[in-house]
Amino acid sequence: MISTRASRASSLTVSMRVVYIDDSFFQSTPFAQAMLARLKLQLQQLRPLLILISASGKSEALEAFCAQAQATCEVIATPCRFHSGDVSGVLRRDAVVIDGEGMHRCYSGSLFCYDSEKREAWRIYLDLFIEKRSDALARLTRQIEEFLNEALSEKKHIFH
User: Per the database entry, which stretches of residues form a coiled coil (predicted)?
Assistant: First the structure.
């Protein structure tokens, strides 16, 4: 079990933002590495106090992530029963059960978030656009640019 706690003044408050992921982020594939980079950026925005990781084993990437994350929050990465702040539940190898919220599974390229104060839960998908500009997005952008160019050129003719 990997469990670390960092001392933060905000961890003494009742409200907690929890992030739940699985260990697919720590595989050595290019997709997993891209998703891990996106996850780190998302965590900077979310600023969770607790990160739960369903892990089927240990890896260097998982250990490195936990060591880095423990500077700002508590990290639990293993099947276990947990209690942190006002959030408790059971972390399993394939899901998390948060008391009062229910069971949630994690999918590759996504994370589950829970705010204990607002009692809100949501999922964030990090893999919607793998490439910076997918073909569909590039086509849409090109069509918008063409439309705007045509619309603006018509206005120039009207005013001259």
Answer: 130-157
Strands laid side by side in the 2-4 sheet: 2-4, 74-77, 50-54, 17-22, 110-115, 120-125
The DSSP bridge pattern shows strands 80-84 and 74-77 to be: unpaired
Q: What is the maximum alpha-carbon separation in the chain?
A: 74
Same domain, 18 and 37: yes
Q: Which residues are CB-neighbours of 57 under 8 A, at least 6 positions away?
A: 23
- Tokens representing 95 are 């899901």
Count how many domains the chain has: 2
CB atoms near residue 12 (< 10 Å)? 8
Residue whose C-alpha is closest to residue 57's, from 35, 28, 78, 29: 78
User: Is the same domain home to 89 and 146?
Assistant: no
Q: Which of 75, 91, 88 is nearest to 26 (CA)?
A: 75
Q: How high is the mean pLDDT in each 10-residue block of the chain (160 residues)?
A: 38 70 93 93 93 91 94 92 92 93 90 92 81 66 82 61
Beta bridge partners of 110: 125
Range of the domain at 114: 2-125
Residue with tokens 């891990």: 36
